[in-house]
Amino acid sequence: MNALAARIAELIAADGPLSIAQFMTLCLHDPAGGTYGARDPIGRDFVTAPEISQAFGELLGLWTVQAWHDQGRAEGVRLVELGPGRGTLIADALRAITAAAPDFLGGAEVVLVEASPILEALQRDKLKTFTADISWCKHFDDNLTDRPLFLLANEFFDCLPVRQFVKTVQGWHERMITVENGALAFALTPAPAPSSVIPSDRAEAPTGGVYEIAPAALTLAEEIAAVIAAKGGAALIVDYGYDSPGFGETLQAVAGHKFAEVLAEPGESDLSAHVDFYALAKAVEAGGAAAYGPVTQCNLLADLGIGPRAERLMITNPTQARIIADAVDRLVNPEKMGALFKALAVAPKNTPPPPGFC
Ligand code: SAH
Prior knowledge:
With 358 residues, the protein is an alpha/beta fold. It is built from twelve helices and 16 strands. Residues 28, 36, 42, 48, 50-51, 83-85, 89, 113-116, 119, 154-156, 159 line the site of S-adenosyl-L-homocysteine (SAH).
């Protein structure tokens, strides 16, 4: 057992088995050994779209500007990014926004929601040359509810903790983490969960079927939607995920760009789960806003003009042309990131559909 696993085992000995959600939170955010709490996994364990091509962040920045135009160019907006990683997406977005619509940023506040002190330090360094009013906070909270909200989130929702319920002949049992023979192990709760935990559209699962739910993701999507419904704005959530309810499990561990065992080395691999866009869209609607999509990353980026942007980048950097073309292909090719990654947009009801979702 590594040091974090040993501490988790002590916690289980004292308090009983942990839910998968509690385990994920410890593995991701523990300040001494967590994936994000103690180090920067981006590049080492996995790579994200903004790190692959600058066009990704630029186009998301321009998406924001177009949504702002479509809704009447409100003054004093708030631009929020959830989980900005190394700050690359927001740096590329701010550069594109400054070039295309400097008035968007006049009076605007930029807020970066980041749990990891290590990544926050990288973001501060990356953004030190920008003159925009940029601040940081650890959670999306009530301080972010009083202005029109333009929000971007790439590969953020997949990090939010999931709970899993497994259908057996006795009913649905939550999958927990316990200790067996000196090692962390999965186990089901002995008593079935109350039937109210399982929504009616998932009740008819076969034996062995899994219901995976990300409660924090759904609450957050509803909160974001409520702000957008009340104050205006738009949100774009990009992630790997699925768009219709299923009975599979998607919790995964990735280390060094390869799949790893979820329980093997807590904190040493990145734990995540595919985003349930179907449930996320329902949460957005419960928050009072309109949900659009999901559309595939391939279609979104094509619609936002990644083709002409890539050509322009290749003309201005001819020696890099092959690298630029390969990077863009990785983002849009359906065999690579183009189809697995999807985008969901949020906008107030009765406003034009956001760009890429018309
Ligand atoms: N969006 C970036 C990074 C994705 S990695 C990119 O595309 O490159 C996930 C990011 O979300 C990291 O910055 C991580 O520290 C942050 N994060 C994960 N869980 C979080 C939480 N619960 N609260 C705030 N930030 C979180």
